Amino acid sequence: xxxxxxxxxxxxxxxxxxxxxGPAFADSPRDRTQFGHDVSVAPxxxxxxxxxxxxxVRIRGKVSGDVTTFGGNILVEDQGEVxxxxxxxxxxxxxxxxAKVNELTIFAGRLRRDPGAMVGGDVTTFxxxxxxFLIFGLPFAILGGLIALIVWLIRRVTRPAVPLSA
Length: 166
What we know:
Layout lengths: L2 H18 L11 E4 L3 E3 L4 E2 L2 E4 L3 E3 L2 E2 L3 E4 L3 E3 L4 E9 L3 E3 L4 E8 L3 E3 L4 E2 L3 E4 L3 H29 L8
Parallel strand pairs: 1-4, 2-5, 3-6, 4-7, 5-8, 6-9, 7-9, 8-10, 9-11, 10-12, 11-13, 11-14
């Protein structure tokens, strides 16, 4: 197996470990943290915190703390309740009739809110994909530029001098 095959094997193993160990990152037994698997809080169920990477959250019960998604949607259905902050990065939030949330923040997503839904605090929305670029892409572009500058400087310093011919 060549270097390329070894790298592919390592990447696949890391992805498998991350996918299978999602719940291991939760701080308490009632926390839910998932990578790529949707999270559902059933009616009558109460959890502390919900965090989802690349997946969506459906709340029909109660979340006493925060709900955060990265690249996924949040749906708070009838009688669903979030006691902390509700934050979606790159996803939409839908609040159905009877839903209750505290603070609400949406980056690069949309808010669909039924008139019967209640928001106890501020609602902040940054619509448009430019916010995703500013939050995630711009730091990587700056980091890439710095790495390119360092490589250019090292090559310039270590380049052998070419004698001038007359």
